[in-house]
């Protein structure tokens, strides 16, 4: 089966646990296997006031005032679903980003297409780790970018991280000699496992 387009996603969140924390910023960069960009999109997500908390601003740089004019979560999920379409969801630690989105979709009653689409998650973190079976290297996004000479000039900013991951993807596809969709099976995340603090830490290691 031929390779699909890839929707490379990154989130910034108020914390590391999908059960308790919320999405603050969502970005998607849609590319083909060569890395050609076909679409890109980024949005903040409005939180409920006055209870909404933004978490570690020193890491993601997002403040409460930046979210006040943002669209609500339901609108964000609707646009996310439309832009995702038939593309394959990709993230650097797909379990973390995928579980935040899947949980939000379940609670907001988003289109059925989104729930089923989020069950297919290609993980670039897994792809990178498989190239390093003895785990001698760091697989943090920034470190993987440096190995492949990919620019990441604004770490922990959703669109910049998604753009960098999208630029990495063709390198990882070539490194694993991926020719069709079946070749990606070893790097697909298994849905249904909660994005806990421990899983979230692995996003950058």
Give a written overview of the molecule.
The protein starts with 5 loop residues before the first strand and ends with a helix. It has a 5-stranded mixed sheet. With 205 residues, the chain is α/β, with parallel strands linked by helices. It has one domain: Ribonuclease H-like superfamily/Ribonuclease H (Nucleotidyltransferase, domain 5, 2-Layer Sandwich). 39% of the residues are buried. The protein has helices spanning 57-60, 64-67, 73-84, 94-108, 112-117, 124-130, 141-147, 158-175, 197-201; strands spanning 6-13, 23-31, 37-44, 88-91, 121-123. The chain has 9 helices and 5 strands.
Using the 3D structure, state the CATH architecture. 2-Layer Sandwich
**Integer count of domains:** 1
Average pLDDT level = 90
Helix content: 25-40%
The fold-level CATH name is Nucleotidyltransferase, domain 5
At the first level of CATH, the class is Alpha Beta
Contiguous low-pLDDT stretches (5 residues minimum) are: 194-205
Order of helices and strands, N to C? EEEHHHEHHEHHHH
Distance N terminus to C terminus? 31 Å
Q: Key features?
A:
205 residues, alpha/beta, Nucleotidyltransferase, domain 5, five-stranded mixed beta sheet, 5 strands, 38% helix, disordered C terminus
Brief characterization of the structure:
This protein is an alpha/beta fold and 205 residues long. The chain has one domain (6-204): Nucleotidyltransferase, domain 5 (2-Layer Sandwich), CATH 3.30.420.10.
Write the layout of secondary structure elements.
Layout: E1 6-13, E2 23-31, E3 37-44, H1 57-60, H2 64-67, H3 73-84, E4 88-91, H4 94-108, H5 112-117, E5 121-123, H6 124-130, H7 141-147, H8 158-175, H9 197-201
């Amino acid at each position: 089966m031929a390779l699909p387009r890839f929707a490379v996603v990154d989130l910034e969140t108020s914390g590391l646990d999908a059960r308790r924390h919320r999405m603050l910023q969502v970005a998607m960069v849609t590319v083909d296997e060569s890395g050609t960009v076909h679409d890109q999109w980024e949005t903040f997500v409005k939180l409920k006031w006055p209870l909404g908390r933004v978490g570690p601003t020193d890491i993601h740089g997002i403040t409460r005032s930046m979210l006040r004019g943002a669209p609500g979560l339901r609108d964000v999920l609707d646009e996310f679903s439309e832009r995702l379409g038939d593309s394959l969801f990709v993230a650097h630690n797909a379990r973390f980003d995928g579980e935040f989105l899947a949980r939000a979709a379940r609670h907001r009653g988003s289109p059925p297409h989104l729930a089923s689409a989020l069950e297919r998650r290609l993980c670039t973190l897994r792809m990178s780790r498989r190239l390093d079976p003895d785990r001698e290297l760091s697989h943090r996004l920034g470190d993987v970018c440096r190995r492949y000479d990919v620019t990441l000039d604004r770490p922990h900013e959703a669109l910049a991280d998604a753009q960098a991951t999208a630029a990495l993807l063709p390198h990882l596809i070539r490194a694993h000699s991926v020719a069709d969709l079946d070749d990606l099976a070893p790097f697909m995340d298994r849905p249904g496992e909660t994005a806990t603090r421990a899983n979230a830490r692995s996003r950058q290691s």
